[in-house]
Specification:
The protein has 205 residues and is an all-alpha fold. 76% of the residues lie in helices and 0% in strands. The protein is built from eight helices and no strands. The longest helix is centred in the first third of the chain and has 36 residues.
Length: 205
C-alpha cells in the first residue's frame, strides 16, 4: 500500500513540476512574441506564469526529498562516528518532518481565510485564489511524507551503512552507472579528483 501511495505522490510531483515549468515558459515566450511582434500583450500571461512556476517549484522541491537531492552540508557527518552520524541524521530529518507538517497545517488553515475573504484574481478571469494557495498544504504534505520515508530508511539501516555522499559523488555514481563509454580508469581518476577537491573545500562541493 505504501508503495502505491509513494508512486502516486511521485507521479503527481513530477507531472505538476514538468507541466508547470513547460507551460510557464511557453506562456512567457508567447507573451514576449505578442508584445514585440504584434504590439500587444496578454494581460493574464504574467500572473498565470508566476502561478505555474510557483506550483512547479514547490512540487519539484517535494520530489527532491524522494531523491534526497536537496543541498546538504556534511562536514560534521564526515568527521563523526557512524553511530553519531545516524543519530544526527535522524534528528535533522525529524525536525524537517515537523517543520513541513506545520507549514502544511497552517497552509491548510490559511485556505479557509482566503475562501472566507473570497479573494480572486483580477487578471485570471476572476479565479478564486484558494486554488493557487492550495499548493502550500499539498506540496508540503507530500514533502513531509517523503521525509517520513527517509526517517524509516535511517531507522532500519545499520549505522555502518549511513554514509552521506557528496553531491559530486552522487553525480559521478550516476555517470558511472549510465555511461557505457566511460572506462573504470576514467571513473577512478574522477573519484580521485573529487576526493582531493573535497579535502580542499572541506566537503562543500
Amino acid at each position: 500500500m505504501f508503495n502505491i501511495i509513494s508512486a502516486i505522490i511521485g507521479f503527481i510531483n513530477r507531472s505538476i513540476a514538468i507541466i508547470g515549468i513547460t507551460a510557464g515558459v511557453a506562456i512567457a515566450f508567447s507573451n514576449v512574441v505578442a508584445r514585440y511582434a504584434l504590439n500587444t500583450s496578454l494581460v493574464w500571461a504574467t500572473e498565470l506564469t508566476i502561478f505555474l512556476f510557483l506550483w512547479s517549484v514547490f512540487f519539484g522541491a517535494a520530489y527532491c526529498f524522494k531523491k534526497d537531492a536537496h543541498i546538504a552540508v556534511t562536514v560534521i557527518l564526515d568527521i563523526v562516528s557512524s553511530r553519531t552520524a545516524k543519530v544526527m541524521l535522524l534528528i535533522s530529518h525529524v525536525i524537517t518532518f515537523v517543520f513541513l507538517l506545520t507549514v502544511s497545517y497552517f497552509g491548510y488553515e490559511y485556505l479557509f481565510l482566503v475562501i472566507e475573504l473570497d479573494e480572486r484574481s483580477i487578471d485570471l478571469w476572476d479565479m478564486p485564489l484558494w486554488i493557487v494557495y492550495l499548493v502550500i498544504p499539498v506540496s508540503f504534505l507530500f514533502a513531509a511524507y517523503r521525509v517520513a520515508e527517509r526517517i524509516n530508511v535511517i531507522l532500519t539501516t545499520s549505522h555502518e551503512k549511513i554514509v552521506k555522499e557528496s553531491e559530486a559523488e552522487m553525480v559521478l555514481s550516476e555517470l558511472g552507472e549510465n555511461s557505457k563509454d566511460m572506462s573504470n580508469k576514467n571513473v577512478e581518476e574522477l573519484n580521485k579528483i573529487v576526493e582531493e577537491t573535497n579535502k580542499k573545500t572541506g566537503g562543500l562541493l
